[in-house]
Amino acid sequence: MEYTTLGSTGMEVSQLCLGAMSFGSEEPWMLDPDDSREIIERAIDLGVNFFDTANAYSAGESEEILGNVLSEYDRDEQVVATKVRFPVGEDTPNASGLSRKTIEQELDDSLERLGMDTIDLYQTHRVDPNTPPETTLRALDDAVRKGKVRHVGTSSMWAYQLAQRLRVSEREDLVSYETMQNHYHLAYREEEREMLPLTDEENIGVIPWGPLGQGFLTRPYEELEATERGDPENFHNPTAEYARGGGKEINERVEELAAEYGVTMAQIALAWQYQNEYVTAPIVGTTSVEHLEDAVEAMEVDLTASDVDYLEEPYEPQPIIGHE
């Protein structure tokens, strides 16, 4: 396992972050506690020490499952991240958003579910248009001062919105966002225009979600079209979304290089992430130990500069996906 420093936090994290969205029972494809344990324990065996979840994942079950397993290991070796913004279960008044009330009550609930005294990285899960950034950042600053949170991060938004929040932190002498969990992969690179230069300048750790394009970069395009996700009637159709803007050709080139290197398409897509100068650690969610092992082995795939250029060359501007 390779390790790297997470932005300005100073924390050393594995170059792969295990995403916990698949742990729980909210959707048929999610894993029960026993199957989830198998993946978490194998990740730890492989050297993974960085784990990402959210209060809203499977109505809190994800946090509970992750916390139960990690409690049996050395807490000092783990870096645990969770998020706040969306409701846990029914969206009743103050169950969602980034108000002080919501943050304080949801943080306490997350701590209880995780079985921890302190969360290493507490992230705002998108922007709350109804709460001023000052209010959110003051609540987060208090959480750090109380010892409930060590560092704070955020997720997909416009670059100007992140810049605004960084200025608020500086002006008001409040805790500042030290990580960005954004949407970024070979077939979706809009973040390179403004967000990634900003995070680089501010030494903000970048931990992309969906580094495999919700499966778009894991199988040949023809196979994707035949799946449910490729159905044009599907409300969220990642195959169609990522195929535009040169995406179909990118998929084909990933397949071509995978054959040349004798690895999977997912490993080529992840190797591009691991070697990307902007990326700290992609968040990899999985429902199988085999795919987790493949993701770790992808660190050994050494793409050449010409390989990277070849993969990136077909890309064209895309509509924004992942935030509004």
TrEMBL record:
InterPro entries: AKR, AKR_Detox_Biosynth, NAD(P)_OxRdtase_dom_sf, NADP_OxRdtase_dom. GO terms for cellular component: cytosol. The keyword Oxidoreductase applies. Keywords: Oxidoreductase. Gene3D superfamilies: NADP-dependent oxidoreductase domain. Residues 16-313 form the NADP-dependent oxidoreductase domain. The keyword Oxidoreductase applies. Transmembrane segments: none annotated. CDD domains: AKR_EcYajO-like. GO terms for molecular function: oxidoreductase activity. It holds the Pfam family Aldo_ket_red. PANTHER family: NAD(P)-LINKED OXIDOREDUCTASE SUPERFAMILY PROTEIN (PTHR43364:SF4), NADH-SPECIFIC METHYLGLYOXAL REDUCTASE-RELATED (PTHR43364). This is Aryl-alcohol dehydrogenase related enzyme. The lineage of its organism: Archaea, Methanobacteriati, Methanobacteriota, Stenosarchaea group, Halobacteria. The gene is tas3.
